[in-house]
Amino acid sequence: MKKLWFLQHKLAVIGLAAALMVPLVPSAGAAQCLSPGEARAAVSSGQARALGSLSISGKIVDAKLCRQGGRLVYVLSVLQNGKVRTVTVDAKTGR
């Protein structure tokens, strides 16, 4: 009985270790964020609006320019009414 318990737990630990070794693959719609240099180049070339030109209700506490679904989007963390929300904005239109 003790051997069976040990074997079950050993298999559970091995299974967990194997699951942790599997690389996380982003889904097709997942955002792939640009480096700061790539983001500056996208803004300079007109592919994306400058972050300061966006009309956002609340205080932006973090911002990333990312490719999502074939377009550039800003993924923003915005402080509104004491809570941080994640907001996604089209980088070209600002909407």
Descriptive account of the structure:
Helix content is 31%, strand content 32%. It has 2 helices and 4 strands, in the order αβαβββ. It starts with a helix and ends in a 5-residue tail after the last strand.
Summary keywords:
31% helix, 95 residues, four-stranded antiparallel sheet, globular
Whole-number average pLDDT? Answer: 79
Report the β-strand fraction as a percent range: 25-35%
Quickly count the helices: 2
What is the helical fraction, as a range of percent? 25-40%
Number of strands: 4
Shape: globular
Distance between the termini: 63 Å
- Could you say which structural class the secondary elements and strand pairing correspond to? alpha+beta
Biggest beta sheet attributes: 4 strands, antiparallel
- pLDDT < 50 stretches: 9-28
With strands numbered from the N-terminus, the spatial order across the biggest sheet is 1-2-3-4
Radius of gyration: 21 Å
Task: Write a brief caption for the model.
With 95 residues, the protein is α+β, with helices and mostly antiparallel strands.
Write the layout of secondary structure elements.
Layout: H1 2-21, E1 32-33, H2 36-44, E2 59-68, E3 71-80, E4 83-90
Antiparallel strand pairs: 1-2, 2-3, 3-4
